[in-house]
């Protein structure tokens, strides 16, 4: 397996806009969706698919992850863009999906919030929020 291609949040937005078979899969936890926010794809006529890679609070890997993708109607024909907080969990989730029948998987570099800045805060240096892409509180 060649690995998972990395794609910037801005390139992900463009891919989601241009491609009807492109899906943003947000693999963060319920707590993150509820308290940190979500990508807002309403201008594209889409919604992020919310499937946690790890289950809060134990943070155990979701053993049914690929099955959840299938239940959502996704197939090998879809291009899947995996997003987490900083790009680490999404890389693991995307690699697992790729190995389980979803060959067109991409990791969104720096995720939703990106790395911490000099003051220890996320969302300002890189990632979906820092790139000025639409998002909302749940």
Automatic annotation (TrEMBL):
What SMART domains does the annotation carry? Answer: RHOD
Gene3D superfamilies associated with the record? Rhodanese-like domain
Q: Which residues form the Rhodanese domain?
A: 18-124
Question: What Pfam families has UniProt attached to this entry?
Answer: Rhodanese (PF00581)
Q: What is this protein called?
A: Rhodanese-like domain-containing protein
The source's domain of life comes to: Bacteria
